[in-house]
Amino acid sequence: MTACEKAIRYLLAKMDEEAGDVMTLPVLQKLLYYSQGFSLAITGKPLFEEDFEVWQMGPVIPALYEKYGKEPAFGILNPSETGDPGLTEEEKDVLDQVYFVYGQFSGWKLRDLVLADPLIAGAPIRSVIPKAAMRDAFLARLEVSGAYEADF
Predict the structure, then answer these.
(1) pTM metric for this prediction
(2) Which among 145, 146, 142, 144 has a CA at the least distance from the CA of 42?
(3) Shortest CA distance to 59 belongs to which of 132, 123, 12?
């Protein structure tokens, strides 16, 4: 299982199906984008190796689109694919905080947020978002918000 697949499993396990939570591919892509950015900013390490590209609706990991892009928009992944994927506590902390902050938003709200992101806005379609640029942008976001590692 790749590191990206581990992050996906962990995020899926956080869903509350009884409350009506559904994970769509666009929502998953955006949660992974925020998770990767904050991991780079806080730990100095990527959560996974896959790169994001700028697409019309926001950041996309092309391999995930290829794997799940044909699935229905109302839910792409089987919740039985969840469970403890063997992440470190540091990785879980980042994913927990991202899910707490961004997991409450609809796919449309997340789309609006990422399209306003300086790394995405105005970037050429299909361009790769460098991890160093993500780290710098998310570090700046933490500094502006007054959040510190312990707060995040």
Answers:
(1) 0.89
(2) 142
(3) 123
Look at residue 46 and give its three-state secondary structure. Answer: coil
Rounded-to-integer distance, Cα 65 and Cα 29, Å: 9
How far is the C-alpha of 59 from the C-alpha of 52, rounded, in Å?
6
CB 59 within 8 A of CB 114: yes
CA dist 115 and 59 (Å) reads 9
| Assigned token pair, 7 | 């992050």
Distances (CA, A) of 81 to 7, 50, 76, 96: 12, 20, 11, 18
Taking the CB of residue 74, how many other CB atoms lie within 10 A of it? 7
The pLDDT tens digits of the residues spanning 88-119 come to: 999 999 999 999 999 999 889 999 999 999 99
Domain ranges, ordered by start, for the chain: 3-145
Contact 55, 107 (CB under 8 A): no
Q: Residue 89 corresponds to which tokens in the numbers above?
A: 């506590």
End-to-end CA distance of the chain: 27
In contact, 9 and 85? CB cutoff 8 Å: yes
